[in-house]
Amino acid sequence: MTASVMPAALSRQPVLGVLKKKYFATRLDAAVTVLFAAFIAWIVWSLVNWGVLDAVFGPNQGDVCREDLEGGACWSVVSTRWRIVLFGLYPFEEQWRSGIACIAMVVVAILSCIPWFWSARRLPVLWVVGFATFYVLMRGGFLGLAEVTEQNWGGLSLTIFIFAAVSLLGMPLAIIFALLRRSKLPWIARTMALVIDTIRSLPLLTIMFTFAIVMPFVLPDWAIGDKLYRVIVGYALFFACYQAEIIRGGMQALPNGQEEAAKALGLGYWHRIGYIILPQAFRNALPPTINQFVITFKETSLVTIIGFFDVMASGRAASGTAEWNFAVVEMYVFVALIFYVFVFSLSRYGAYLERRLGVGRR
Amino acid sequence: MSAPAIRIASMNKYYGHFHALKGIDLEVARGEKIVICGPSGSGKSTLIRCINRLEEHQSGVIEVNGIELNDNVDNIEEIRREAGMVFQNFNLFPHMTVLENCTLAPILARKIGRAEAEKTAMEYLTRVKIPEQAHKYPGELSGGQQQRVAIARALCMAPEIMLFDEPTSALDPEMISEVLDVMVGLAKDGMTMVCVTHEMGFARQVADRVIFMADGEIVEQGPPEEFFVNPKSDRTKTFLSQILA
Ligand SMILES: Nc1ncnc2c1ncn2[C@@H]1O[C@H](COP(=O)(O)OP(=O)(O)O)[C@@H](O)[C@H]1O
Ligand SMILES: [Mg+2]
User: Fold this and answer.
1) Which atom of ligand 1 is nearest to the CA of B38?
2) 3-state secondary structure of B52
3) Do B108 and A264 touch (CB under 8 A)?
4) Which of residues 261-320 of A touch B (CB under 8 A)?
5) Disulfide-capable partner of B83 in A213, B38, B161, B189 (CB 3.0 to 4.6 Å)?
6) Do residues A272 and A182 touch, judged by C-beta distance below 8 A?
7) A76-357 adopts what CATH topology?
8) Which runs of consecutive H residues, i.e. helices, occur in chain A?
């Protein structure tokens, strides 16, 4: 009751009155308010000074930065060397391909957030087209496009590729794992539980190392593939084990009556799973699922350790030369900003989904 | 077509070591309306759920429309399409609109086109008197309305038999009659019905036969006039005196 009346009542009061009431009610309140306001103002002021007023923006101004006595930020490192961050070791003249490939992938990701695409036919088509575009552009080797092998992929393009491939491979795997884990045949369910628990209890880094370095000794030649794809498979497996448990949790929250009603209508197993169980399980499990995607995106930077040049490693490399090694902080701020844009959009999208899906289940 | 709608012969059902249904024999003719009553825990739900394999029986025979219930999945799904079921808790699909609830199974399991399925669904929704709710979600409806949707959803599969498991037990008293009215209408149209219910007024009005169960057995059965006026066993008498009090 009161909650719905309050905002209207507040907005009718003059702004000053509200301020006074909320922040200056007592002497202590006033003191705390003033202190905090001063502190925040000081931080903002320092940041603006460093990042904008005293900063050097234009490309190729390393010398200016070095002589800059004000101590402002040297964004010149970014405006000079941003290409390395975005494209890594990808050949300079071909970087437009990497750029378009990146944009294609981001567009596909954005499109698949639109409810119109949420059908069993449209979504897979969209992603297959997206991946094909990405791969063909990145890899080349036809129509006069120079071939660029996976070893030379890098930067943000590589990070996006790894993230998209892991999610896309991992999600169906996760669904299969979750279904196997609740199989009526005890030995299937128990084996699956054992596999999931084992993989979950290993650090991601170990799994990446195993797939990148140990697997080639174990696998037959034809199955080895590029190191990049082995790492993606390993990471997808890791993702799937966590996500399978999240989906299983979502399924357990469903009343038995849902599956029984679907059975009683004569719906077969796959129809029950596809139309009744999974859609509701995903709704129930939405917050942890979004969380899982955020973690997965951030942890792609672990691939640096096995020699990949993802956006993080590229950032370090871009500021790693003798000419620019004083501007490490600026470079990391730039990389952090890239991560922030992706992860923050993901969380906002998650919040939107929760609101939207909430409609059906009041 | 001479086979009875349902034929159950010396059927036994166990939950682990617990003997839930003991040597059940029951035949339901086409068009017959059966009301099953009995104390809580006597096995009424279990019996009705064995008919469409929501529970598996361990011995004996169950045939629906002459099709035997066994491990053959095709048989099971065929029988489920022929026998609609209405649950105590409605069990509507909360993530779909009323109309989608009603068209899902006809489209997927009967391979009917969407337009035709929606037309049929609207006819049945009109029949249960809630066509105007077709585009709402179940969570936006009252209990009585939800149960009527559940009945319409089952009818959209054009079943030959309808199974009801205490369809009014979860409803507020003022909503019971709107659901019972729909069921009476169905009975008048000649549907074969097996209803677990304690609505004795309904039993008197539509039942051809009332069955009394206790401890997993059919204790007594007969036409309602005889069953209510002249119960034979003591357990039936006790039960009736409690329920009619
Ligand atoms: N899934 C189950 N597992 C074990 N026992 C059950 C299960 N379902 C029902 N029972 C037992 O079987 C008996 C009959 O249950 P039920 O058919 O639900 O009775 P009613 O519908 O007549 O109240 C009860 O004693 C109940 O405890
Ligand atoms: Mg019951």
Assistant:
1) 22
2) coil
3) no
4) 261-268, 271, 275-276, 279-280, 283
5) B161
6) no
7) MetI-like fold (1.10.3720)
8) 2-12, 15-23, 27-48, 62-67, 76-87, 95-111, 122-139, 155-181, 186-200, 204-209, 215-218, 221-224, 227-252, 256-264, 269-271, 278-284, 286-299, 311-318, 328-358
ipTM (interface pTM): 0.94
- For residue B92, list chain A residues with Cβ-Cβ distance below 8 A: 261
Residue numbers in B near A255 (CB within 8 A): 89, 91
Q: Report which protein residue has its CA nearest ligand 1's atom 24.
A: B41
Rg of chain B's alpha carbons, rounded to an integer? 18
The two three-digit tokens of residue A227, written as one number: 């190191």
Task: Tell me the two tokens of residue B230.
Answer: 């002249």
pTM assigned to the model: 0.85
DSSP bridge partners of A189: none
User: How many whole angstroms separate alpha carbon A273 and alpha carbon A259?
Assistant: 9
Please give the distance of CA A53 from its chain centroid, rounded to a whole number. 32
Is the CB of B109 less than 8 angstroms away from the CB of A283?
A: no
Q: Whose CA is nearest to atom 18 of ligand 1?
A: B45
